[in-house]
Amino acid sequence: MKHICYLLILFFLALHGIVSAQDLSDRVIEHTFPNGLKLLMIERHTSPTIAPYILFKAGSVDESDDTRGIAHMLEHMLFKGTKTVGTKDYEKEKEVLAEIDRIGDALDMERAKGSRADDAKIAELEEALQTQQELAKEWIVTGEYTEIYTQHGSTGFNAGTSVDYTIYTVELPSNKLELWAMLESDRLKNAVLREFYVEREAVKEERRMRVDTQPGGKLYEQFIATAFTAHPYGMPIIGWPSDIAMLNRRKAEEFFRIHYAPNNSIMVIVGSINPTETIALIEKYFGDMPSQPLPPEVTTDEPPQEGERRIEVEFDAEPQLMIGYHKPTLPHFDDYVFDMISAILSDGRTSRFYKNIVEEGIAVSANSVNGYPGGRYDNLFVVSATPRAPHTTADVEEAIYAELERLKTEPVAEKEFKRILKQVEASFIRGLSSNAGMARQLTFYEGLAGDWRYILDWRETMYRITPEDIMKVANTYFTKSNRTVATLVKKEAVAPTGDDAEGKE
């Protein structure tokens, strides 16, 4: 999850040269179809290109206990094709897919028995599954979706899953809008989650590479799990290893049916378009998709912390530190104040962390982020740092707390305030003028804040923040009982004993 201030700066960069914040509301065209699909458009003819984005409120926070990791897994599966894309003959292929599901379910059930499992039966089922997967390859056309888009001049064909949502992105020549509508509507209406067990193994490997063998990934996962004991924000997006091992196609298809409904999605198209024609085109391809009863929002609130939480994560790597404070999410006024606090602490080489911690040689890096791990629900203000030897995480932690205490007791000087606001203004005019940048921000804020107009108020609200607001927020949230601290420490070598020790003399 990108931090809110950074996202908004990117938004206004994209905005520059297109339309001012004041008249953006006149340029964004909104249309809601009878099935609940919300479409946002900006007509922009600076280049013959378009950036169509689709966001679904289908993140890891929406999973149930027996489907952890399914949102991320489903994102992978939707690149596998449909009944017409990615297959040579779906009618023949589906017979093999049914057999794969049957064997895969039986294999998972046997493995779930743990120590009581029948090893011979597991081996037999594994061999049978491998045989059926080899048979399925006869009908599969690998990577056909990507190939089609590439042949038609696309860039940025991708997707991403967060705690809050899953988003699908691409950029295309503007005369390929109908191709996009045809391909994406087919993907939503006729998706075939082929190669499920093959991809499940790939996700296991992805977890090993990005989390289990990466010090930063391991520390972050344990940090978030410690900070959130009740709310599902504490669960890893990719899932725990045992979660991934029990995912199946049936679970993915059910999650897909419920959460990928048109009334649970946001579509944004920015670029060289005719809005009237675009509305008719989207109606043609997406209008017959049935709406679904909206999935329930998370009702579990993270209870207030009643004391500092501290954990150590052992790993053969250099030490790292993460500190988090619980706080409200947007559009609470305090969330805006945290955007300002983050800019004061770590926005550039004139920031307090850089000047007082990094330049002083205490840390290699020290950064703050507002809004982890997501923005739909109350979240964390997070500080992360890596000490510079011979300094320790304890030294860095002490230096960080000193800066947070300053925010509580010393009003931010007018000069510093002006510097921060000037940096924001400078960012507005440096120019990130891509269709994709605009599409991403409109999609993000319509999906999370419930209204893209949140971005119109952000800059104005930032100018209303006072030094007293910063002191109040710092005193309210930067308390010992409200913080979680995670440190990465090197695993101590175990000294040999007994015969082992003698053998090494």
How would you sum up this structure, described in words?
By secondary structure, this protein is of the alpha+beta class. It folds into 2 domains: 283 residues, Metalloenzyme, LuxS/M16 peptidase-like (Cytochrome Bc1 Complex, Chain A, domain 1, 2-Layer Sandwich); 181 residues, Cytochrome Bc1 Complex, Chain A, domain 1 (2-Layer Sandwich). The strands form 2 sheets. It has a 6-stranded mixed sheet, sandwiched between helices. Strands 7-11-8-10-9 form a 5-stranded mixed sheet, sandwiched between helices. The longest helix has 22 residues. The N terminus and C terminus are likely disordered.
Describe the protein's topology.
Blueprint: H1 4-15, H2 24-27, E1 29-32, E2 38-43, E3 49-56, H3 70-77, H4 90-111, H5 119-136, H6 144-151, E4 155-161, E5 166-173, H7 177-189, H8 196-212, H9 215-227, H10 241-245, H11 249-259, E6 265-271, H12 275-286, E7 309-314, E8 320-327, H13 333-346, H14 352-358, E9 363-372, E10 379-387, H15 393-409, H16 414-430, H17 435-448, H18 454-464, H19 467-477, E11 483-489, H20 498-503
